[in-house]
Fold this protein.
Amino acid sequence: MTETFTGPAQPYAGGDPYADYRSAAHPFTDLPDLADRALGGCVVAANDEFFAERENLLRPERPHFDPAAYGHKGKIMDGWETRRRRGAGPAHPWPEADDHDWALIRLATPGVVRGLLVDTAHFRGNHPRAVSVEATALPGHPGPEDLLAPGVGWTTLLPRTEIGGHAANGFPVDAARRFTHVRLRQYPDGGIARLRVYGDVVPDPGWLAALGTFDLAAQEHGGRAEDASDRFFSPPANTLRPGRSRSMHEGWETRRRRDDGHDWVRYALAGHGEIRAVEIDTACYLGNAAGWAALSVREDDGPWTEILPPTRLQPDTPHRFLLDHPVPATHARLDIHPDGGVSRLRLHGSLSERGTRELERKVRELGGA
């Protein structure tokens, strides 16, 4: 059962602000964040952001706290914070039971939501008492007025639920539908540092068909890292991020091996596809790049077939390999010898006829836009 938190945290007493941070392990956090700013997620609107901007909700880094940071509106917080709500008058100065603030978030890519993380880091006594989250699916590029229009159907992912301050409030979600936007409500007001919307990417089949050749392993197209031998310095999912790494922490790096083994990552591709070219990038890894790399693929649960034999890698280099013919696959495995860092893996190709049919059927079954 997922551990939950309620109530405020103790006032900040100095030292490490995360020393009394309340958190728990949530299995869904291994999935892609569908609201990831780097993939295209955006907070398109909020009814109030008096103390701290709505855009902070999707910042990728851990929330920061500076006890000395004050501005002309008060304490500067790394999150989304609204003003304090008031009642109608001195006879009833308290907000009404249903008073709340809201923010609309466009997901970076359509998908099925499997879990939510409402992070109130550093909001100790100024966090909301409760939150709720809904989702909808609209085609195209709807603005706030479209999302808030009468008749738009919203599905409840998280009913109104009490949360804790200075805590990682995580909630599993069971809603087998494809969504494009979520609405976060906080009751009655307060501050939330970050929102993460974890789930399975379900891209637009028409868009992938129009692209022709694309990266079958990319997170934005539905690729994901299923398992890995080592996650000591950084997660293997980093290898599927957009763009090139700007520093070592943006790639995947394993601990130093003291045995005769090697490290590996297993990937699920966007669907059944045909790979035509491979790119293995060691950007920003200088004295700790992987020494050699090999790549194998398989279809469904079939045997692994090596399509790139162990090949010497250079530090801080994008290595590009053209395949002799399109290789069908649903999964891939990158083996690095003996250990080290790889920043990105790209598997350029396209969905097969089977892969296209399966994706089109999934979109229909999930009932999304």
Q: What stands out?
A: The chain has a mean pLDDT of 96.
